[in-house]
Amino acid sequence: MTTAPEPIALPVTAVTCLEDRAHVERSAELDLQAGVQRLRLGPVSALAVDRTLHAELTAEHPASVLDLRIVRTWTPREPVPSADDSALRLRIRALEGRQLALARRRERLETRIDLLDRLAADLLREIGEGAGHGETDPPRWAGELDRLDGERDTAGEQLRLVQKEMAEVSGHLDEVRSAVNASEGEPAELTAYIELTVESAAAGGVGLRLGHLTPCALWRPAYRAVLDGGSVTLETDAMVWQRTGEDWSDVRLTLSTARSALAGDPPRLAEDRLTLTDRSAADRRTVDVELREEETGNLRPAPVIGLPGVDDGGEARVLRAPAPVSVPGDGRAHRVPLSAFTTAARSEYACAPELSALVTRVVRFDNLAGHALLAGPVDLVRDSGYSGRGTLAFTAPGAFVELPFGSCDDHRVVRRAEESRDTTGITQRTVVTRTVRLHMSRFSAPDARGDRVVALRERIPVSEVSSVEVRLRTESCSPVPDEVDAEGIVRWDVPLPPDGHRTVTLVYEVSASAKVTGL
After folding, report:
1. What is each CA distance from 404 to 49, 251, 285, 310, 378, in whole angstroms?
2. Per-residue confidence at 301, pLDDT binned at 50, 70, 90?
């Protein structure tokens, strides 16, 4: 068996990015000899999952794969300066050398000052002993003391300058090291190669396609909606992150919502017992009801905390980039265009005062992208420019899309609610009457013309038991609602002229028999 002396390059040619990992495909042309031989391919990402590694050979003559494995080796960093070092790293070594020289000079100055202090102490002791024996030489003593004081002052000043320079060098060194950490990544220490053992019946060229899974790669959908008059343009993009240790250059990118990591085991069944209990006489005489709220619609984008998963409507979806893309392995988000379409849009100004006092411009249009729109953030752009960010819900192909394009600051809505409770004398029925008044106003520029229709929505309760009745008192409503649906949503289309004011009144009553409790 022969072994190739040099590794053969194995670039990434196609990537299928999943929700939390990626399937990487590599291809190369091999020049094989007749017989069994071992090839070294790579380098490849050290994060490749070994058990997912598979290879295929395509050739005109018989050829097969006998063995396939990943071999990882640790490459130690160079302990000495190299000619390939950057200017910042060379600057660091120069500063470290200067710092070492200053430290040695400081030690010498501190030693000299200590020696001068001891000489001064010996001279003072000699003066004291000479004075005790009657030996006096004031001129010599004064000269020696002055010379020692001068040398100590000079050494002290030099030590102060050295310490100041050391502080400056230390601060500059910290700045350069921070710049290196921010601009230059650490060299890869773990290197992986693929060892491939093949058998070929004849010498010649063979095509190799190799694939494996790798972590540290994911994608999420993102959108950009541009509203221009009566049309809207929706651009679908994919935000791709990857830090697999290698760059993806000019690869065929496929985006999938398949979750290969989910277990295929059925859910565990638990025991659920149902028991029958006789109702007491008190229970037969009363009907216990409760008021609960159920959300049936929302005009505002739902808040998203963190990075959500891909909402594909319960079915695996596959999207493909129309052109080869390049994604560096820096761990940052990279936007990849997928599709775009322009279609006519229908817009209305909507307000639900019980939820919010803002009047929102809502745009509705059909999904003509040719594929399902997955749930994700959408950047909203209109005539005045970027207006904010919303959330696009999962939308099937051909279904209508509903997007809020921000609130209108020139509208104001004030909501007031009153409630009265009464009991009839004969039937002892409880009647709760609720009155809701909505005061609307519009502030316009002096040159504004024409009315603006605002779709105003309010709700009334919906009864699920025959003992409780809900009635809309249309004779007391002003104006009469334009629509009341089965979910209790009452709608008015209110025209507002420039600087106009309107008051909308809603009156409904909830009546219950005497045996109803909890109302």
Report:
1. 44, 36, 49, 22, 10
2. very low
Which pair of tokens denotes residue 375? 């749930």
Q: What is the CATH number of domain 87-183?
A: 1.10.287
Strand-pair category, 54-58 with 204-214: antiparallel
> Can you tell me the distance from the alpha carbon of 439 to that of 452, in angstroms, rounded to the nearest whole number?
16
Encoded tokens for 290: 């409760």
Task: List the structure tokens of 519.
Answer: 């109302």
CB 373, CB 390: distance < 8 Å = no
| pLDDT for 299 beyond 60 | no
Q: Is 412 exposed, middle or buried (0-12, 13-18, 19+ CB in 10 A)?
A: middle
Strand ranges (E), 6-62: 12-17, 22-32, 35-44, 54-58
398 in Cβ contact with 243 (< 8 Å): no
Q: How many CB atoms lie within 10 A of CB 45?
A: 24
- 2 pLDDT exceeds 70? no
- What is the arithmetic mean of pLDDT over 287-315? 62
Average pLDDT score over residue span 162-179: 91
Residues 435 and 379: their CA atoms lie apart, in Å, by 39
**DSSP-based three-state secondary structure for 69:** strand
First to last CA, the chain: 88
Crossing angle of the two packed helices 87-132 and 138-183, in degrees rounded to 10: 160
pLDDT in tens, 435-448: 999 999 999 888 88
Return d(Cα 148, Cα 111) in angstroms, integer. Answer: 15
Question: What pLDDT does 320 receive?
Answer: 95
Nearest partner of 438 among 474, 386, 491, judged by Cα: 491
pTM: 0.67
